[in-house]
Amino acid sequence: MINNDNYRGITQLAKENQAQLVAVTKTRPQEAIQQLYDLGQRIMGENRVQEMVEKQANLPDDIAWHLIGHLQTNKVKYIAPFVAMIHAVDSIKLLQEIDKRAKEANRVIPCLLQFHIAQEDSKYGLHILEAQTMLGDRSLRELKNVRIAGVMGMATNTDDQAQIQREFQNLKEIFDTLQAQYFADSPEFKEISMGMSGDYELALQEGSTMIRVGSKLYE
Ligand SMILES: *Cc1c(COP(=O)(O)O)cnc(C)c1O
Question: Could you tell me which of 22, 172, 147, 169 has the C-alpha nearest to residue 95?
Answer without folding.
Answer: 147
